[in-house]
């Protein structure tokens, strides 16, 4: 009897100890599961945040890089060159009157900066502005040393079926008191009658925008029958004279490269308005 009681007590101890171990293991396992669940949750949140950040970054890049193309082609012709082209060429088809193919242009009387350098600097910046809005831009040249005749440059506009040819120049006069900006357009002659009205309309829009936004004197639109680049053109064409290099105020403004971004943006603004 005594041995039986001892045996029963041993069994009870074994059961109690086993139960305690099981509970301890269960608690340890639960603790591990909770910790693992917490770590998994943190990792999930981290991955989620990473995905959100990546999506936000990609969205930002996409919005920044997206440029909606237009169906407009603009040919930009920076006036003159550092080398020039000798020889004469007829100012119009079948004309006996001739002009120099490509002159060196004027020089800033107060800054000493040559016109061709200013023209090219502004032209390249206008190109950047237009392309940022989806315009197709063709340059007649991209180096100040490159020289093409006026007829050759007119043909570039014709061959590209340009919606507008923009010729970029700066003016000069023997009278230093004369200043301001103007736009020259083809006259209504037998060579340019088909592009006269639209060229004049574009010219008015561009010069009005230019003068108003820059606060420079507006000398208006000037019709020309004697420009080779006009008379050989089959597409709308305008020539902007950004200011007088013989006038101190104009020269100091137009020839200063720090102002070229502003000048280019304003010219581009005028072009945008032409096609609104």
Summarize the structure.
The protein has 276 residues and is α/β, with parallel strands linked by helices.
Description of the structure:
- The chain has two domains: 1-66; 73-274, Aminopeptidase.
- It is built from seven helices and eight strands; from the N terminus they run αβββαβαββαβαβαα.
- The chain has helices spanning 2-65, 115-132, 150-159, 193-214, 228-231, 248-254, 260-274, and strands at 73-78, 85-90, 98-102, 136-139, 164-171, 181-186, 218-224, 237-244.
- Helix 4 links the parallel strand 6 (181-186) and strand 7 (218-224).
- Helix 2 (115-132) packs across helix 7 (260-274) and helix 4 (193-214) packs across helix 7 (260-274).
- The protein is globular, with a radius of gyration of 38 Å.
CATH topology-level fold name of the largest domain: Aminopeptidase
The largest sheet has its strands arranged as 4-1-5-8-6-7
Low-confidence stretches: 20-27, 29-34, 50-54
Number of helices: 7
By CATH reckoning, the class of the largest domain would read Alpha Beta
- What is the percentage of strand-forming residues? 15-25%
Number of domains: 2
Q: Which shape, going by the Cα principal axes? A: globular
The string of secondary-structure elements, in order, is HEEEHEHEEHEHEHH
CATH architecture of the largest domain: 3-Layer(aba) Sandwich
* Backbone structural class: alpha/beta
What summary fits the major beta sheet? 6 strands, mixed
How much helical structure, as a percent, in the residues?
40-55%
Number of strands: 8
Radius of gyration: 38 Å
- Termini separation comes to 113 Å
CATH homologous superfamily placement of the largest domain: Zn-dependent exopeptidases
- How confident overall, as mean pLDDT? 86
